[in-house]
Specification:
The complex is a heterodimer of chains A (about 425) and B (about 290). In chain A, about 40% of the residues lie in helices and about 15% in strands. Chain A is α/β, with parallel strands linked by helices and about 425 residues long. Chain B has 11 helices and 2 strands; from the N terminus they run ααααββααααααα. In chain B, strands 1-2 form a two-stranded antiparallel sheet. In chain B, β1 and β2 form a beta hairpin. Chain B starts with a helix and ends in a 12-residue tail after the last helix. The chains are: A alpha/beta (about 425), B mainly alpha (about 290).
Chain lengths: ~425, ~290
């Protein structure tokens, strides 16, 4: 049989010129595909958004919870008339260096905007990469103040800083103490020894003096965020004789601390948390009745805003047994910011996108406060925090008054009398 | 700080240390006879922990009641691993053995990640939140049960090596390899049996450890390192040394965390290791090897 022309072309001998031409064409294609500099793509194509989250490692539970915010976003953004986003997922493995490498890889693979990464240390590393490569980065959750103090042009944070969280936490605590007519005279401050935990620890003394709180911190106990046993830490805290616990923790350690409180037969007057962990669904489900009572002072949502209701409904449809929380709210809002900026910029050009994000003015949002807008540093400084309490597997807002839907239950009911 | 706090924390550290000791005992038994350091030791314990979690989730079976079956599964795994994978490497350089077992460890971690996902998993037994109050002493029930089980398993192992013919034959292999061959012992089979016993040990430890900590796939390497530190501290190849090393590390970590800063408690573990390497390189109960 006579070979076809196509067959001939394939079997033709390789010449030097042909080889160089093919290698050259291949290299040009590869360079175009992995170009570090942003290139404006054809109109109509979705914006490629790299979402970096700790999907494995000791923060996996929270990373996967943030992912729920990503999963439910597409439908809501479409209803708002915002353009489509093409999501590119990446796992930071709860590791700062992996976060940095994954950010570089996502940009190499064509991501035009980055979102993430729940943790301050990981977000700091991603911010450095984003700024270096000139790709806009919207932080969903990370509170360490230095991230937006570096003069970055491509980094934006729609999440309160540690000092904002502390100031609101103390204001909300005073409101609760006044409402229940009781306050602890002493606390022990326990915090995770990571970027967020140490940021909060550094700011707490100044914020405490400024807020004129009724209690004193008897001891500060730092612990490893990946700790597998916190019995020594709780024994040390109990030995101080403090009336209440003030905490900055994560999810796994919050569960370990609760187990130790029960086993060491210590029910403080209150568990006052200024970080994640104590309100997460995994915490509520794993510990059942023992999860009731802790009060978390956290960035939260305004249940009266229309978009909050839409987000609640979308989450209830996708995950009927999961409460809407900080992880969903702020991850969703990061995508909202990206889609809104993309619509206004009308291009995927990185500089135009960054300029559009800087000019963001979204009043119809989810989080508490007047809306989403960034200052010259790329920080949304108008966000407000709430106090929420665990009740029978659900979360109620108890402060500030404007956003509250329940009264505080005080003091913490004894662990050994919960049946 | 009241003295009761120190005693409470010391008892907690002692009970945890006994479980650490049993884990390290498996590593020590394997090294003492086969002369291979099992760098997949912690990962094998993770497999045992996941088995306990799966049995509890599916059938409500208590991890302590499942101690023997889980140890038997790990015994079989260890036997097959030694005969099929490690035996050809017995006479190869140490770095080849190291690379082989490191590869096995990586495969195990990733297989667990695929099978169970990255979430932390634990068991919520009916006694998960129990504690015993003996005057001012409050003892965590999980740690007490796990510590007692560790003592029972370690005691059985000592008895096996001292009083049974197979145990004596394994000790003969460890003491004099050529002599064991001369008297007609099936050394290859005894090596596989030893690796299996060491694996069963770590299987039993996994059943206890799941009462104390939640398991995640990346947990293994940290425990491999811990077991390694314990056997070097106690004396490589010394069974009582492994138990003593475990208790020493457990108590030191607990008291160090209480007296100084808890976030630096691992530092005390490595401080002991450095001291032992400086002043007694053969380990606390190890025998000095003459050059």
């Amino acid at each position: 049989m006579k070979p076809s022309c196509h067959r001939k072309a394939l079997t033709a001998p390789v010449t030097r010129r042909g080889f160089i031409a093919r290698v050259g064409a291949g290299a040009a294609g590869w360079l175009a595909a992995s170009a570090p500099l942003p290139i404006a793509r054809a109109q109509g194509a979705p914006l490629k958004v790299g979402v970096l989250l700790p999907r494995s490692g000791f923060q996996a539970g929270i990373g996967q919870d943030c992912q729920r915010g990503v999963d439910i976003a597409a439908g809501i953004l479409k209803d708002l008339g915002l353009p489509e986003l093409a999501i590119m997922n990446a796992d930071t493995e709860t590791n700062v260096e992996v976060a940095r490498a994954r950010a570089e890889r996502l940009i190499g693979e064509g991501a035009q905007l980055l979102i993430g990464a729940f943790d301050s240390g990981q977000s700091t590393a991603i911010a450095q990469v984003a700024e270096q490569k000139g790709i806009p980065y919207v932080i969903n959750i990370a509170a360490a103040p230095p991230i937006t103090e570096q003069g970055y042009k491509f980094v934006f944070r729609n999440f309160p800083t540690a000092s904002m969280i502390l100031a609101d936490a103390f204001a909300n605590q005073k409101e609760i103490f006044a409402a229940v007519g009781s306050a602890p005279k002493s606390v022990v401050f326990m915090h995770v020894n990571d970027t967020y935990g140490t940021s909060m620890q550094k700011g707490i003394d100044a914020a405490l003096n400024k807020a004129d709180m009724p209690y004193k911190i008897l001891e500060t106990i730092a612990y490893d965020p990946a700790a597998r046993d916190l019995s020594v830490e709780v024994a040390k805290a109990k030995a101080t004789g403090a009336e209440a616990l003030l905490l900055v923790s994560r999810l796994n350690d919050a569960m370990l601390l609760t187990r130790e409180l029960v086993k060491q037969r210590w029910t403080p007057m209150a568990v006052l948390s200024m970080g994640p962990g104590w309100y997460e669904d995994q915490y509520l489900k794993t510990l059942g009745k023992l999860a009731d009572g802790p009060i978390s002072f956290v960035p939260w949502y305004d249940p009266n805003k229309p978009l909050s209701k839409a987000l609640e409904a979308a989450l209830a449809k996708a995950h009927p047994d999961v409460n809407l929380n900080t992880n969903h709210i702020y991850t969703f809002e990061a995508l909202l910011i990206a889609a809104d900026a993309f619509k206004r910029a009308g291009t995927t050009d990185a500089k135009a996108l960054a300029d559009a994000i800087r000019a963001t003015d979204i009043a119809d949002n989810v989080s508490i406060g007047p809306g989403i807008r960034f200052d010259a540093k790329g920080q949304n400084a108008t966000l407000k925090n709430a106090a929420i309490q665990n009740r029978g597997g659900k979360l109620v807002t108890i402060a500030p008054k404007g956003a509250a839907n329940a009264k505080p239950e005080w003091p913490l009911s004894p662990y050994d009398k919960r049946g | 700080m009241p003295v009761e706090i120190y005693l409470n924390v010391a008892v907690s550290g002692l009970l945890t240390g006994l479980v650490y000791g049993l884990m390290a005992l498996g590593l020590s038994v394997i090294f003492g006879v086969v002369r291979v350091v099992n760098f997949a030791h912690g990962e094998m314990m993770s497999i045992a922990m996941y088995l306990a979690v799966a049995l509890f989730a599916a059938y409500g079976l208590d991890p302590l009641a499942m101690l023997v079956p889980i140890a038997a599964v790990l015994f079989a795994l260890g036997y097959v691993m030694q005969r099929g994978l490690i035996n050809p490497f017995i006479n190869r350089p140490e770095h080849s053995q190291f690379m082989l077992l490191l590869a096995v460890a990586l495969i195990m971690v990733n297989a667990l990640l695929i099978a169970f996902g990255p979430d932390a998993r634990g068991v919520q037994t009916s006694y998960a939140f129990w504690s015993f109050a003996l005057g001012w002493l409050i003892v965590d029930a999980n740690k007490a049960f796990a510590g007692l089980a560790a003592v029972a398993v370690a005691g059985s192992l000592f008895a096996f090596f001292r009083y049974t013919l197979v145990g004596k034959a394994i000790r003969a292999c460890a003491d004099n390899y050529a002599g064991a061959l001369v008297v007609g012992l099936d050394v290859k089979r005894l090596y596989a049996l030893t690796f299996a016993i060491g694996s069963a040990c770590v299987g039993a430890t996994g059943s206890m450890m799941v009462l104390l900590v939640d398991v995640t796939p990346p947990l293994g390497p940290a425990y491999t390192l811990l077991a390694f530190v314990i056997v070097i501290t106690g004396g490589l190849g010394s069974m009582p040394g492994a138990l003593l090393g475990g208790v020493l590390i457990g108590v030191t970590e607990a008291l160090g965390g209480l007296m100084f800063t808890p976030s630096a408690k691992s530092m005390f573990t490595f401080a002991i290791l450095v001291l032992v390497l400086l002043f007694r390189p053969q380990g606390i109960l190890g025998k000095r090897v003459e050059p």
